[in-house]
Queue: 2 jobs
Job 1
Amino acid sequence: MATSKRTDYFNGNKGEVWIGGTKIGTASKGKVEKKITYEEVDNPDVSGGKIRVPTGFTNEISITYKSTGKEEEIDMFNLNEDITVIISDSNIAGSKKSRVKCDGVTFDTQTFINFEKGKVKEVELAGQAESVEYMK
C-alpha cells in the first residue's frame, strides 16, 4: 500500500522541548523567530515619506508545553548561566525532523503555579536568545 503524501507535512503535533539538555515535555506550541528592528528616516525623494532602515534584530522564542514537573529540576531562570533550548518538530510520518538550537536564552517571566480545572497543566515561556542555529 502506498504511503500518503500528507504524512510528509509538518503539522506541529510532534514537538519536543529540551532545556539545558533535559527533555521537559511535549510542546503543544513553539516558535523561534528573528525580529528585525527598524528606524524610520525621512525619504529625500518623497516629501513627507519615510524609509525603514534595518538597525538590528532579536531572536524571539516562545514555547508552550505540557508540564511533567521536570522543569522544576532545571535552573532555567538562573541569569548567571547560559541557557540552551532545543525545539524539535517532526512530520506526521515521523520520517523528517526539524530542530533549532537557541543559545543564551533568557525568559521574560517565571510562573510558579498555573492551573485550570479539567485541563492538563501547560507552561508558557517567552524570551530572547543570543543565537539560533539549525541542527541536523
Job 2
Amino acid sequence: MAAIPELKRKTCTYNFYRKPLTSLEELGNLVTDRNQKVFDDQYGDILALLKMVVDPVPLQTLLQFYDPELRCFTFQDYQLAPTLEEYSILMNVRIKNRVPFLDVPKEVDFKVVAKALYLSIKEVSDNWKPSGDVVGLSLKFLVRMAKEEAKKGNWVAFNAQLAVMIYGVVLFPSMPSFVDLAVITIFIGGNSVPTLLADTCYVIHSRRGKSGAIRINVRNVIMSCGEFRNVPLIGTRGCINYNPVLSPCQLGFVMNERPQDVEIAESVYFEKRSDPARLEQVGKAWENIGIKDGSVLGRKFAIAMPAYTEWVKERVETLLLPYDRMEPLQEQPPLILSERVPAEY
C-alpha cells in the first residue's frame, strides 16, 4: 500500500532586490583605518553593509518557516526569532533605554536636520523635496556634500552624512536614491535597533499575510514593554510585536518549559497611520521596559528541554511544514543539568 504523503504548507515567494551601491561604496573607501574606528564607535558596524554579499536562497528557505501567529520561525522541533539583542550585537549598536522612533514630526525643523547632518539651514531647505508620499533629501545631493567634506578633511561631517545615507538606502529604504524624513528622524534619535527589527518583522509578516557563526553573549534581555506581555515594535510603516519568551535558547539560556498561553496571546500588528491611538499606547509602553537578567533566565546552556520541544512538535502538527521532515542524525540521550552550574559563566 502506497504511503500517504505528508501534508505541507504552501510556500511563499519573496523577491530580493538590491540596487547597486556604487556611490556609497566609493565614499566608504574614503574612510581610512584611523577614521573607521571613529566612525564605528559613533554609528556601529554599518559600513560593512556596503560590501556584504547576500545569498537569497537561504533567506528564501528560512522565510518559508515563518509562523504568523507566534511571529517566529517554527521548525519541526525548534523555533527561531530575530531579537533586539542579536540585532544590537550584529550592528554593534547599543539599545538605549528610551522610547525609540515613534513617527515623523508633523513639521520639519530644518535647524535640527542641518545640525545633525553638518549642513547649513539654507542647504537643507533649498534641497528639501518630495519623493512619492515622503519628503527629504536626495542621495545625489548628500553624496555631493559628503565628497566636499572629504576634500576639506572634515571627517566628522563626512561620517554623519555617510551614515545617514546608509540608513536611508540600506537600512530603512523607502524611495530609490532618497533619504526621507523618517530616516533622518531615526538617525537623529540614535536608537535604530528597535526600528530596524520592527521593519524586518513587519515586512515578513505582511508578505506572508498576502499569500560564519557569531557567539551571542547576552546577560540582559528585553522581555516586555509597559502593560504588554511581549515587546511591541515600532517601525517606519507599522507596528508588530515579537515574543521574547520564545527566544531564550538562541540567546544562550535553557528553554525549560513551553510558553504559557497568556505570554504569547497578545498580538500587535497595524499600520501606523490607521490607528494613532494604538501607536501612542505602544510609544508609552516603551517608557517602561521590562528587562530580565541571567539570574532570572537561568543557566546558560543554549538547549531546549523536552517540555518545550514537545510543544513545538504539537504546534507543527497544526501549522504544517513547507518541506519534508528530516530524521535526527542520532538519538540524543536525556539531558540532566547539574544544579551547581551558575546562571552566568
